[in-house]
């Protein structure tokens, strides 16, 4: 029988404004689901090393890999500002 996945804590940041916070969020979601690193990487179609780098906040990972993981884990990123800007008549600067 394999080792049980130990849940990681959610990041305490209010906003996701860097790769480290996003990596912590991804790791917390994966471990809360009880999914091993290797199984998650396979599910998302990326390598184990790539997923490990993402979870550790490496800033040199591709957007393709990042979104593969987010979509694979069911994490949706949103921003209230995008919704309010899209509905306003003001132009973006």
Which properties best describe this structure?
93 residues, Transcriptional regulator, Lambda_DNA-bd_dom_sf, 0% strand, globular, 434 Repressor (Amino-terminal Domain)
Shape: globular
Biggest beta-sheet profile? none
Please give the radius of gyration in angstroms: 15 Å
* Total discrete domains: 1
Domain HTH cro/C1-type: 26-82
Pfam families: HTH_3 (PF01381)
Protein name: Transcriptional regulator
InterPro entries: Cro/C1-type_HTH, Lambda_DNA-bd_dom_sf
Structure report:
The structure is a single chain. With 93 residues, the protein is an all-alpha fold. The protein has a single domain, classed as Orthogonal Bundle (434 Repressor (Amino-terminal Domain)). It is 53% helix and 0% strand. It contains five helices and no strands. The chain is globular and about 45 Å long. It starts with 18 loop residues before the first helix and ends in a 6-residue tail after the last helix. The mean pLDDT is 89.
SSE layout:
Elements: H1 19-32, H2 37-44, H3 48-55, H4 63-73, H5 80-87
Helix pairs in contact: 2-3, 2-4
InterPro entries: Cro/C1-type_HTH, Lambda_DNA-bd_dom_sf
Protein name: Transcriptional regulator
Pfam families: HTH_3
Outline:
With 93 residues, this protein is mostly helical.
């Amino acid at each position: 029988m394999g080792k049980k996945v130990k849940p990681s804590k959610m990041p305490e940041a209010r906003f996701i404004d860097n790769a480290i916070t996003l990596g912590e969020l991804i790791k917390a979601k994966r471990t809360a689901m009880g999914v091993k690193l290797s199984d998650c990487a396979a599910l998302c179609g990326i390598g184990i090393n790539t997923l490990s780098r993402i979870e550790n906040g490496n800033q040199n990972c591709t957007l393709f890999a990042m979104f593969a993981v987010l979509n694979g884990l069911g994490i949706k990123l949103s921003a209230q500002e995008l919704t309010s800007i899209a509905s306003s008549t003001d132009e973006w600067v």
